[in-house]
Amino acid sequence: MSLKIVRRLLPEWGTTYGPPGDGPFPAVMVFHGSEGAWSGWSHRNAVLLAAHGFLAFPFGYSKGGNAWNAGSIEEVSLDRSVAALTALRAFSYTNGKLGVYGVSRGAEHALLLTALMCRDAVDGVPDAVAAHSAPDVVCGAFDARSYRDSGDPGWQPWDPSRRAWSWRGSSDDLMPTQPIETERYEGPLFLSHGTADRVWSVEMTRRLEARLKAHGRTPEVHYYYGQDHIPNSDGENDHHDYLISFLQRHLIA
């Protein structure tokens, strides 16, 4: 029996997952959240996409970490993300079409990266963008070593002096609470959010949807009623149906 999903190395960057054969396939870069690159969730999401015909690359952007520690999201270079996008688009197994998909901090990453590339006219803007449980503003740095649940005596809000992202060598323009200028992107955009999300309020996506429509954009938006930050089985099945349909419509020539 032949493999239905094949791992391939994107030289100098890491593992991709895709269908068997030589392709070419539409590509999707998958951004993990604060759980970090080692947790396996972004690889699991990449495998789901690979099962539906995409060459998916789970991009590990967090700093440090290992199988027991998620590492940090602090002063993460979005320029490095652009370089990874460029490498993926040029990979011999891809058809030249490329989307990005992120959840939570990964959704923030996808939206912010795309907005900055549009603002500064950087080549290689994604052909489609999908973001689940996204904030509508830049968020503060995160370090798993110091994380505490809300209510824990050691819990504290973000320190605004610590910044999650950098662009062109600086984080000065990426202060926490600064709106992500997603309206700069003219391509197909998918947004989704659970209405009972206890991590990122659904109001963030509602505000983003309203701002996009005020700028004449037409995002595809799905609200999953009663679902938390991580949907239950039924919610996740609905989400993947919507997500894969969106990516197929916009990335398969």
Automatic annotation (TrEMBL):
Task: Give the species this sequence originates from.
Answer: Hoeflea phototrophica (strain DSM 17068 / NCIMB 14078 / DFL-43)
Question: What name goes with this protein?
Answer: BAAT / Acyl-CoA thioester hydrolase
- Which controlled-vocabulary keywords does the entry list? Hydrolase
Q: Which domain of life is it from?
A: Bacteria
Asked whether the keyword Hydrolase is assigned, the reply is yes
Q: Does the keyword Hydrolase apply?
A: yes
Which residues belong to any copy of the Peptidase S9 prolyl oligopeptidase catalytic domain?
Answer: 83-251
Q: Which Pfam families match?
A: Peptidase_S9
GO MF terms listed in the record are: fatty acyl-CoA hydrolase activity; serine-type peptidase activity
Its BP terms in the Gene Ontology are: acyl-CoA metabolic process; fatty acid metabolic process; proteolysis
